[in-house]
Amino acid sequence: MLEDRATAAPSATPWPAAYPKGYAVVDVETTGLARDDRIISAAVYRLDARGEVEDHWYTLVNPERDPGPVWIHGLTSEMLDGAPLFAEVAEEFAARLDGRVLVAHNAVFDWQMIAREYARVRREAPVRQRLCTIALSKELGLPLPNFKLESLAAHFGVVQQRAHHALDDARVLAEAFRPSLRAAAAGGVRLPLLECRPLTEWSDRPVPRQATGGYGGYRGAGWRPSRKRPACPYPNPGRYEDGKRLKQGMRVAFSGDTSTERELLEDRATEAGLHVATSISRLTSLLVTNDPDSGTSKTVKARQFGTPIVDEAAFGQLLRDVEPAGE
Question: What is the pTM for the complete model shown?
Fold first, then answer.
């Protein structure tokens, strides 16, 4: 259980001066996983610099659409009908996030859902950095059978009461994050912080839903509405070679969390004349990932095929000088 702040024993561990001064442990439940799905509940545990709980907050949110997989999150249309709209909780939510590092399990998902909701109401979430507890677990080398929240909780003896309930998931994560943070401080581990960039190009144009994916048949307005990318007009020149330039026509795949939203990275790659691939094959020229040891299907296949791997920062540099096809 979370320690009482008044009775918690002071830590003798010298605390890294570069560590953040406060954290917002967040969980959101949503109508689905797509970029135009909506938040239906949100919870925030505010923690101080050493991971001690300051307070917590929870709200339901009316998504103004079908609630999606009720069998997962348990929130029906009737339960959400009288809930506030996101615009009505945006200010309070922002106050909980302001000036803190957003902490979440698979943080890129929670961050992007939050950023899109703020974009819809023409605001920016006051978050500049995020920390994924999956990435932190890997940095610490925790002996987990997998990187599910339940496995992280079990490792630290945290009892989960209501899985997929935003408030309980946030509580569980806060309890597991505190010992993780202290272990990182004791070991001098650099926290895997990533930049959060606000989304500012929201479109209100309706987007027809081509496939429901099991989350109902409606898809409303969306961030950078779904579209089929045009076919790359250039032939694949082969694999990227370290120290050389990317060349138009190269097949590039992405895996894992990135500071820049994945859609924007893919747009930039397409605009540079690269072919954005959704999977890894022997024809893939390059895999972009910030966690090459993650064990995802893409990183595993990249190693099997000998596909070159670079991180997001290196890829950004390479995009500045892409060799034209035919040279």
Answer: 0.70
